[in-house]
Design brief:
nine-stranded parallel β-sheet; alpha/beta; 440 residues
């Protein structure tokens, strides 16, 4: 079989660092931080109002770009993320540019360079910085307190939007250049917008380009990763990710294909909306985000995970999500080898998902290191009901099975696959996940 030239180029770019990194943070930050959002949701979770009606009011409330950036970058560093994404400008945030753009088209722009300080703070902590930009232009000319850009652009339609976005991208390149690791583009690549990734590539070369929605199919050669963004139907277990789903989500996001997808659950509905506005599953279970993390890592193949967090106005993480972030941090202190430099075990001898033997049902995700295809990490997030477990290995017999956290070798019998009984599964309750290391 022969790979297409575009796919070979994508593999070369993403394998340099992005695919092995596996874990990032996605920060929605701007005028709506601490308030509502212009995007209407059917459950009316948003207040549909701006917290700060002008960039000047917003900046007066912050402690300054340097402090905000340091807090975001340090939070990513502490939890174990390898990259971080910041909304440099967002359609759902009054189209506010978080740096002093010289483009007069934008009505909301900051005097402080929040983008520049974010890039600087991330690089200082060895966190790769990304910027989010909208590529679909619904709502650019009108938000709740619009217009947000010069109305002439709206009158001229998509050609003017395309030119405006290219101008903004070029200004970002001129200001920050190679200090930036990549761009995350929001919106379908249509109406000529599919040219945007190629324009970015002409400037940055090998930086990573992520595009959500229809680009999850990667039909735009210059795009490296697509993203499922969020799913529509209930998962099983509830913390499971898209896995093999093939149905579009409510934003028109295409379901994930085999590889190159980034998943973005949003515990607090993108921007920070104040106390009590977090989704209950994250408030009720401090391991829910960790288990989403584990599922994203080990249900498919090359798949990254970047939870969407709306920081506080000073760039710190909301108190409500701190237990969830700490759970991931605690896990990575002993379980990082099962995450970094790995991919999901799709199309290998081991099968993730529900495992069942005589109704002793459990659930796991499985990762395998790029450097060692004979090793597999089984991340059990649901304890088998009767305590014993049978795993599928296509008939292959492991040399050994060990508890990753303790290093203890576990006895097993070979039935149709490795059969284990008498295992202490308490790590699932204590740490949110039990990791078994299979070596063949």
């Amino acid at each position: 079989m022969k790979l297409s030239d575009a796919h070979k180029a994508r593999l070369e770019r993403t394998m340099k660092w992005f695919a092995p990194a596996r874990f990032g943070m996605f920060y929605h930050y701007g005028l709506y931080t601490g308030g509502g959002c212009s995007v209407a949701i059917e459950d009316d979770i948003y207040e549909s109002r701006m917290k700060y009606e002008t960039a000047e009011e917003f900046e007066a409330a912050t402690p300054g770009p340097e402090t905000v950036a340091a807090n975001m970058a340090q939070a990513a560093k502490d939890i174990g993320a390898k990259y971080a994404i910041l909304t440099a400008v967002h359609t759902g945030d009054a189209i506010t540019v978080l740096f002093p753009t010289k483009n007069p088209t934008f009505y909301h722009k900051t005097k402080g360079d929040y983008v520049g300080e974010f890039i600087k703070a991330c690089n200082a902590r060895e966190i790769k910085p990304f910027l989010y930009l909208p590529m679909g232009f619904g709502g650019w000319e009108q938000a709740p307190y619009g217009p947000c850009i010069d109305p002439k652009v709206g009158e001229q339609g998509f050609p003017a939007y395309y030119t405006l976005l290219c101008e903004l991208i070029k200004e970002i390149y001129d200001r920050y250049g190679k200090a930036l690791a990549g761009l995350w583009l929001d919106g379908r690549p249509e109406f000529g917008m599919e040219r945007i990734p190629a324009y970015i590539r002409s400037l940055w070369g090998d930086d990573i380009i992520i595009t959500n929605n229809a680009a999850a199919e990667l039909d735009v050669p210059e795009t490296d990763f697509g993203t499922s963004e969020e799913h529509e139907d209930p998962c099983s277990p509830a913390y499971n990710r898209w896995s093999g789903y093939r149905r579009n989500g409510r934003w028109g996001a295409t379901p994930p294909r085999r590889d190159f997808n980034e998943d973005i659950p949003t515990p607090n509905y993108w921007w920070y909306n104040g106390p009590g506005r977090f989704k209950p599953e994250y408030l009720n279970d401090r391991f829910f985000l960790l288990r989403e993390f584990c599922c994203a890592m080990g249900q498919r193949g090359i798949w990254n995970f970047a939870p969407g967090i709306g920081p506080m106005i000073d760039g710190t993480m909301p108190p409500e999500i701190l237990p969830s972030l700490k759970a991931i941090q605690d896990f990575l202190e002993w379980g990082s080898e099962a995450i970094y430099n790995t991919k999901g075990a799709e199309a290998t001898i081991m099968t993730p998902g529900y495992f069942d033997h005589h109704n002793s049902i459990g659930f796991c995700s499985i990762t395998t290191p790029y450097a060692d295809p004979n090793t597999f990490y089984v991340l059990v997030t649901q304890t088998p009901l009767k305590g014993f477990a049978l795993f599928e290995t296509a008939g292959y017999v492991p040399k050994r099975i060990t508890d990753l956290r303790t290093g203890q070798e576990l006895p097993f019998e070979m039935w149709s696959g490795p059969y284990l009984e008498g295992v202490d599964w308490s790590d699932v309750d204590t740490y949110g996940v039990k990791v078994l290391k299979f070596e063949f």
